[in-house]
Amino acid sequence: MLTSVDPGTTGAPARGSALPGDAVRVPRRRQLTGLLIAVILLVLAVAASLVVGSRGIPLGTVLDALLHPDLTVTDHTVVLDLRVPRTAIGLLAGLALGLAGALMQGITRNPLADPGLLGVNAGASLFVVAGIAWFGVTSALGYVWFAFAGAFVAAVIVYVVGSLGREGATPVKLALAGTALTASLTSLITIVLLSNQEAFDKYRFWSAGSLVARDLDSTLQLAPFIAVGVLLCLVAGRMLNALALGDDLARGLGQNLVAARIVCAVAVVLLCGSATAMAGPIVFVGLAVPHIARRFTGPDYRWILLYSAVLGPVLLLAADVLGRVIARPGEIEAGLVVAFLGAPMLIALVRRVKLAGL
């Protein structure tokens, strides 16, 4: 059994940690070096997103389009009207999904927690479908309110169902409740779409999880919601460190468990709702990114959240670029590429972590 440590230090997590296998002390130098590497990868991913596509554009031309735009030049128009918007959306959505995944894994102490696996994305999707089918919503700013409501309702249902029984909200019960809810909501989505052809036509492209052909102006209006979610994450780091020690010990250290869970839940709803409204229900970003971060940070959630905010956009933009390259002259949506890459990671996690230790 693991030994308790101060949650604010960089050391092995105490009893109740979600990831006992990762309980290794990580030197501060390694944390800073890893963060620098992550930032460099983010810069490279942004550059690749602007340069790579069905139409090859040199980096010098991209820089010229950004610094001295001339809309009479075709390459400048492609960069400004197509690639800059999808890169900006990839940055915002990746940041939101990475942070949301880290929050969900921390608050549930479940290494398999993810907005897609726990039904949050499905809830947001169902409400967005309802908005499209019955209220004629067509913009990201219109989607977001339905996405917020759906994410909140799904999160509450999963937590309530997972809390039933003598042991309360265990990680296994939360995962099972999320899986069952996702299946149920997916069936409801199918029923709505089959009865409304216009909604189906609008939804089928959005649901694939893509960064292309999105309305940048409406999307940027969602940035304040993500900003609030990020600010809540700054508060949540110490709370998650305390929760990782187990409810009893966290309560003994003076942590208000109800307040901690409310703060994290609000942040998750804001981040997941915004990301889903922007780019559709993209899965596995929130699952993969926190695990990658832990290899460099150890169990300290203040560092995990910081890394997740950088690595989330890296993964999503890299998937988007890869989707453009492997299917030229067409492309594969980023959400499909991320799902293809994330499935092996999920299998590896299930094999590495014993079910009793989830």
Automatic annotation (TrEMBL):
<feature type="transmembrane region" description="Helical">
    <location>
        <begin position="174"/>
        <end position="194"/>
    </location>
</feature>
<feature type="transmembrane region" description="Helical">
    <location>
        <begin position="35"/>
        <end position="57"/>
    </location>
</feature>
<keyword id="KW-1133">Transmembrane helix</keyword>
<keyword id="KW-0813">Transport</keyword>
<dbReference type="GO" id="GO:0033214">
    <property type="term" value="P:siderophore-iron import into cell"/>
</dbReference>
<feature type="transmembrane region" description="Helical">
    <location>
        <begin position="87"/>
        <end position="104"/>
    </location>
</feature>
<dbReference type="GO" id="GO:0005886">
    <property type="term" value="C:plasma membrane"/>
</dbReference>
<keyword id="KW-1003">Cell membrane</keyword>
<dbReference type="Pfam" id="PF01032">
    <property type="entry name" value="FecCD"/>
</dbReference>
<keyword id="KW-0472">Membrane</keyword>
<dbReference type="InterPro" id="IPR037294">
    <property type="entry name" value="ABC_BtuC-like"/>
</dbReference>
<dbReference type="InterPro" id="IPR000522">
    <property type="entry name" value="ABC_transptr_permease_BtuC"/>
</dbReference>
<comment type="similarity">
    <text>Belongs to the binding-protein-dependent transport system permease family. FecCD subfamily.</text>
</comment>
<feature type="transmembrane region" description="Helical">
    <location>
        <begin position="258"/>
        <end position="289"/>
    </location>
</feature>
<feature type="transmembrane region" description="Helical">
    <location>
        <begin position="116"/>
        <end position="137"/>
    </location>
</feature>
<keyword id="KW-0812">Transmembrane</keyword>
<feature type="transmembrane region" description="Helical">
    <location>
        <begin position="301"/>
        <end position="322"/>
    </location>
</feature>
<feature type="region of interest" description="Disordered">
    <location>
        <begin position="1"/>
        <end position="20"/>
    </location>
</feature>
<feature type="transmembrane region" description="Helical">
    <location>
        <begin position="222"/>
        <end position="246"/>
    </location>
</feature>
<protein>
    <submittedName>
        <fullName>Iron ABC transporter permease</fullName>
    </submittedName>
</protein>
<dbReference type="GO" id="GO:0022857">
    <property type="term" value="F:transmembrane transporter activity"/>
</dbReference>
<feature type="transmembrane region" description="Helical">
    <location>
        <begin position="143"/>
        <end position="162"/>
    </location>
</feature>
<feature type="transmembrane region" description="Helical">
    <location>
        <begin position="334"/>
        <end position="353"/>
    </location>
</feature>
